[in-house]
Amino acid sequence: MRRGSIFQLVGFGLIFGAIAGAVAVLVPWLPTSAGEEADRIDFVFWFTTVIAVAVFSVVAAVLAYSVLKFRVRPEDLSDGPPTHGHTGLEIVWTAIPTVLVTAISIVSAIVLAQNSRAGSNPLNIKVVAQQFAWQFTYPNGQTYGILRLPKGRAAKLDITAKDVIHSFWVPQLAQKQDAVPGQHNKLVVTPKRTGTFPVICTELCGLGHAIMRSRAEVMEKAAFNKWLKSGGKPAGQDPGLAVFNQQGCNGCHTFTAARSAGQIGPNLDKLTSEAKKAKKPLEPFIRESILDPTAYVEPGYKAGVMPPFKGQIPAGDLDALIKYLATNAKS
Ligand code: CUA
User: Is the shortest distance between the CB of 205 and ligand 1 below 6 Å?
Assistant: First the structure.
């Protein structure tokens, strides 16, 4: 091979490497990591990306060089010379990818093993998904619609679902985990910076899938412990409102008193007029609609979208919820 050809090949390689490298580095492909597990996953991404950019620049350089150097001259209609291949080359281009892919597998396996380790003192949180809301139960026995996490401490999530398959995802924490009825999947998250991040359902689970969102609030350790100790209930909050948010009513329904604006189910501000339409007294109407939503379906809505809550809400909570809805309905 002539020296000029080698310079040309290397030149092409540098150009293609620079272009691919710029696309990898300058485009913000991933959200800024907010967790230790996400940092490790980012590392795997970059490890793989560097390999991919290197392979791409070699292949693209050889391709560009060959197209320019060996292209057919005008008017040349003859066949090319028969070639049998090149055993040495074939061994090299099989061996190198084998080594690279094996390296990626090993790095991924190490990261997966590290990411499933919760340490000796994790914060245990039970995560329950249902159409179309998330519930987070803490060691203090309280259940909330928002995931609050302390910075710098591993939280071990025990994830399950009540009805169909959902999937838990906080992009800044990088990992996804399916929520499956009857199954308890584990996920360890160790937040490294404070902030508010979206909790997203990332498994198509029904009509309200796109709005099945909550948020994760990462707090300083001291603030988190104070919040957990106080039970997380702001003073003077109506117990019915707490149930409203815990059970995920806010995910699907508009209710001005609770500042919820869900559009999947009927507007609960109009409960009084709906009870009249159904020819039932208000409180029994609300009770029936929660426990057996198909008994009366508001015109314009489909039966079966809302799951029946029979046996899902403790009796005291149910009473508080019904009272809260009845007293705060506007019309
Ligand atoms: Cu739950 Cu999608």
Answer: yes
